[in-house]
Design goal:
- The complex is a heterodimer of chains A (742) and B (170).
- Chain A contains 16 helices and 30 strands.
- With 742 residues, chain A is of the alpha+beta class.
- Chain A has three domains: 193 residues, Aldehyde Oxidoreductase, domain 4; 148 residues, Alpha-Beta Complex (Aldehyde Oxidoreductase, domain 3), CATH 3.90.1170; 329 residues, 2-Layer Sandwich (Aldehyde Oxidoreductase, domain 4), CATH 3.30.365.
- A seven-stranded mixed β-sheet of chain A has the order 12-13-10-20-17-18-19.
- The longest helix of chain A has 28 residues.
- By secondary structure, chain B is α+β, with helices and mostly antiparallel strands.
- Helices cover 32% and strands 14% of the residues of chain B.
- Chain B is built from five helices and five strands.
- A five-stranded mixed β-sheet of chain B has the order 2-1-5-3-4, sandwiched between helices.
- In chain B, a hairpin with a 2-residue loop joins strand 3 and strand 4.
- Classes of the chains: A alpha+beta (742), B alpha+beta (170).
- At the A-B interface, helix 4, helix 6, helix 15 and strand 30 of A face helix 1, helix 2, helix 3, helix 4 and helix 5 of B.
Chain lengths: 742, 170
């Protein structure tokens, strides 16, 4: 960094540095490790010294805070600056928020995923604000010739006796103060919070409601052309030949060419997890109007080498899974006690086969990237959740150094995990390089639906055993999934300690796999969004067989952990949310009309504890209506922004509802059959019931909310349907089932 | 082909293929990016604009059909973002990703123009063509009711933070 910076506490644990601004004021940067950083996020060598916050304080008293993480609708652009502003002790009205570009030399943990922003940044961002406040206080104390401890701050000013100086007045003097050690600077007590815990509307709301160009798809650069990219409908297929001349003669088309990046990828190939079916291959059409070049695609006549995936289909997967279920499992993921023996001696046993489909992410903003090669480097504008990983891969695939690639982070029109993958960024870069002009690649909805990194489908063959008293004694799950050898396809795995592991003495989790030529990946609450449906539905079956109330059966199960057993989550925290949702939904007490019933489920994921009740009405003819959803959640002692917290939870719950009701991606001949919102159906407002959100404020570190409210909804709904109709839903979506009853 | 219409109160002439959808004329020819591309087949409503005051899906409307019409986009809904629906959307803190919200706001403002005090049922019916992938539907309903109140009593307009936005209750 700048040699004239004043830098405090050059410890290996982190430091701050301050710079005087030319027009007066201070710029404070911070470098230190993030809270809870681990795994992939802690892998880089510069992890401990990357700058991860910026505050610019100008003489007008305005604090401009850089929002470092990509905004995908999770509210992080508002939330992270709130944490800084709280400890800075400045009114929110004097805060401005700017989106930072991707810059690994300055920031750390610039990614959106895994509901990680709150656990990673909750304390570190506050420390940045507290350090800035301490410097302002010290500058004021110097001016008044008193001790900093005797000064107080409030509303963007430092006070001592009857004197006060605003932060704006102090900013230039504070720039000369030695920054404190951010790890020891005192933080506020939660009872003194003025911003954290307040309902702060999203900082981009004024731009959103007036239609300002915030999104990747809105980017324009001078001299830019538009691009579309036609790929083989069979996943992994490649171009053999095409009538490019005919396409080039179409209105609005300036260029058309084959992109075959496999030819140029050398030994430094990008991560295979990102390019599961190979590097981009297809036909680029470039021109002056996106609509015209997209129309020109209909003139394409292409001979494809479809490759081996052409033999894969959903029907074939179903058939293979059924066959595998009858054979000995390939591998044991977990074995506690003796499940087979316990099942043989159980008073009652239940067997069931569950199945869930592949799903698409379907963010409303189709994939896009603007790519511009100039001055020996590549400049990109992209909606991307993982800019750091993307840049590393792009550098390898394109054969240019990472530091020659600039990525501007645009607001994202949703992601739900889709924009963890950067296939469209590489496509845009390859097309721009070959076309020799800046291009904006925009996929149409059909591209977006067909060429996803799908939530993988899966199959579970379950057996459960109960003793005479109706207590669960044995659980066996033969999980038939996708992958090869020991490796599961991405997001097709299952944690060996998945509930009810630890809560039942005899537990066996076994797996078999089918090869898959279709890309898969993380969808909001990955693995949990599917596993919860299976586990929490089968638990319900066991409760019914045991003659117990399904909610009480779950409470009893949560209480049944032998002392000293390690479980994946804290049973007492889960019990608390289950009891809260029981009370709020008036479980078992509400006087419900015939045809209406409640179902319950809980799930732990992304550090969050969620129990939910769904109330559904099914007519005798089988028409389903969802009346209301009650959510009880525990994400620790503090909601940073309760307005956004409720919004995220309501959205996640309704997302789970949409998945359960009517969503399915299927394959035939290696091709995705669904193409747009008429056959991949997203939830609409007339299907959306009220969602009540309640909290258990447990004394634990605050954690994230983008994901964990989703998984309980599908099983809770299916359990409610069973309670009305006596029909157990063992495969999704629900729309495939006849729900009529008499 | 030259096509003339009124766009956000100003007479506008564009030279575009007559079959080009109005959406792409707005976005790529006139650089009005507020109207969004979501599906291209009128399934999602992200591209909703007003044509002579009625909500229309601009992704399926050939620009030739705009000839002589009054077109309003999100950029022209109000001078300064002060349309009751825009105010209510901010007060209730509706957006998550925000991508669909221009279309939602255009549908909601058309609804309120014809029905100043809609019920939840009216809202569901009028808004079911607009997908919100983040599923902010609970707040969309709340915000439309709030916009109806603001429109009827403009003095009640408030820029305060979203107290009780969605609240703990639905």
């Amino acid at each position: 960094m700048n040699a004239v910076d004043k830098t405090g506490n050059l410890s290996r644990r982190g430091f701050l540095h301050v710079t005087a601004l030319a027009g007066g004021g201070m710029l404070l940067g911070a470098r230190f490790p993030l809270d809870g950083a681990r795994g992939a996020f802690a892998a880089t060598a510069d992890a401990e010294t990357a700058l991860n916050a910026f505050i610019r304080l100008t003489p007008d008293g305005i604090a401009t805070i850089m929002a470092q993480n990509p905004e995908i609708g999770q509210g992080v652009k508002t939330m992270l600056p709130m944490l800084i502003a709280e400890e800075l002790d400045i009114p929110w009205s004097q805060v401005r928020v700017e989106q930072a570009d991707f810059d690994a030399t300055k920031y750390r943990g610039q990614m959106a995923g895994g509901s990680m922003a709150t656990p990673m940044h909750y304390t570190s961002m506050r420390r940045v604000g507290a350090a800035a406040r301490a410097m302002l206080v010290e500058a004021a104390a110097k001016e008044w010739k008193t001790k900093p401890e005797k000064c107080t701050t409030e509303a963007g000013a430092v006070h001592f006796k009857n004197k006060s100086l605003s932060y704006g007045e102090l900013a230039s003097a504070a720039a000369k103060v030695e920054p404190p050690n951010p790890r020891t600077v005192p933080l506020k007590d939660a009872k003194d919070f003025r911003i954290i815990g307040q309902e702060i509307p999203g900082v981009d709301n004024p731009q959103i409601v007036t239609g300002k160009p915030l999104f990747g798809i809105d980017v324009t650069v001078p001299g830019m052309k538009y691009a579309v990219f036609e790929k083989c409908r069979v996943h992994g297929g490649k171009v053999k030949s095409a009538n490019l001349d005919a396409v080039k003669a179409s209105p609005g088309v300036t260029d058309a060419f084959v992109v075959d990046s496999t030819a140029e990828a050398g030994s430094a190939a990008p991560a295979p997890s990102m390019f599961q079916v190979g590097l981009p291959n297809g036909i680029a059409i470039v021109g002056d109007s996106w609509w015209l070049i997209n129309e020109a695609r209909s003139k394409l006549e292409v001979t494809w080498d479809e490759g081996p995936t052409a033999s894969q289909s959903s029907e074939e997967f179903d058939r293979q899974a059924e066959e595998l279920s009858k054979q000995a499992p390939e591998q044991d993921l977990r074995n506690d006690g003796d499940a087979a023996g316990a099942l043989a001696s159980a008073a009652k046993t239940v067997e069931a086969a569950y199945q869930y489909p592949f799903l698409a992410h379907a963010p409303l903003e189709p994939q896009n990237t603007t790519a511009h090669f100039h001055d020996g480097g590549l400049e990109m504008w992209a909606p991307i959740q993982t800019p750091q990983f993307a840049r590393g891969d792009l550098a390898k695939a394109l054969g240019i150094p990472e530091d020659r690639i600039t990525i501007h982070l645009t607001r994202m029109g949703g992601g739900f995990g889709r924009r963890l993958y950067w296939d469209y960024m590489l496509e845009a870069a390859l097309i721009a390089r070959q076309a020799g002009v800046p291009v904006k690649l925009v996929w149409n909805r059909e591209d977006d639906t067909r060429f996803d990194y799908f939530r993988p489908g899966g199959y579970h063959y379950l057996q459960g055993g109960l003793d005479e008293a109706g207590k669960l004694t044995a659980w066996r799950d033969h999980f038939v999934s996708f992958g090869e050898g020991r490796r599961f396809a991405p997001s097709a795995e299952m944690m060996p300690n998945e509930f009810p592991q630890g809560f039942v003495p005899n537990f066996a989790l076994q797996a078999s796999k089918m090869p898959l030529g279709i890309p898969t990946g993380a969808l909001r609450a990955p693995t949990s969004n599917a596993i919860s449906f299976v586990v929490q539905s089968f638990i319900d079956e066991l409760a019914v067989e045991a003659g117990k109330d399904p909610l009480q059966f779950r409470l009893d199960l949560l209480d049944s952990v032998p002392a000293g057993t390690r479980t994946a989550f804290d049973p007492q925290r889960m019990k608390a949310v289950l009891e809260l949702v029981r009370d709020k939904s008036e479980w078992g007490k509400a006087d419900l009309p015939e045809g209406t019933a409640q179902g319950v489920a809980f799930h732990f994921s992304h550090r969050g504890y969620f129990a939910e009740v769904v109330q559904a009405t099914v007519s005798k003819e089988g028409e389903l209506g969802v009346d209301r959803i009650w959510v009880a959640g525990d994400v620790g002692r503090q909601l940073v922004n309760p307005s956004n917290a409720v919004n995220q939870v309501q959205g996640a719950a309704l997302d789970g509802l949409g998945q359960a009701l009517d969503q399915e991606i299927t394959f035939e001949g290696g091709r995705t059959k669904e193409s747009n919102f008429h056959n991949f159906k997203l939830l609409r407002i007339d299907q959306a019931p009220p969602v009540e959100v309640h909290w258990v404020m447990s004394d634990n570190q605050p954690t994230g909310l983008g994901e964990p409210a989703l998984p309980p909804v599908p099983p809770a709904l299916c359990n409610a349907i069973f309670a009305v109709t006596g029909k157990r839903i063992r495969s999704l979506p629900i729309s495939k089932h006849d729900l009529s009853w008499a | 082909m030259a096509i003339a219409f009124t766009l956000n109160g100003k007479s506008t002439t564009v030279d575009a293929p007559p079959e080009m959808p109005l959406l792409w004329v707005l976005r790529d020819e006139l650089d009005l990016k507020g109207t969004k591309f979501g599906c291209g087949r009128s399934f999602c409503g992200a591209c909703t604009v007003h044509v002579n005051g009625e909500p229309e899906r601009s992704c399926r409307m050939p620009v030739s059909r705009a000839e002589g019409k009054e077109i309003t986009t999100i950029e022209g809904l109000s001078e300064d973002g002060a349309h009751p629906v825009q105010l209510a959307w901010q007060e209730i803190d509706v957006p998550q990703c925000g991508y669909c919200q221009a279309g939602q706001i255009m549908s909601a403002s058309a609804l309120l123009a014809s029905n100043p005090a809609p019920t939840d049922g009216d809202i569901d019916e009028a808004m079911s063509g607009n997908i919100c992938r983040c599923a902010t539907y609970t707040r969309i309903r709340t915000a439309i009711h709030r916009a109806a109140d603001i429109a009827q009593a403009p003095s009640a307009t408030s820029h305060e933070t979203a107290t009780g936005a969605g609240g703990s209750e639905a």
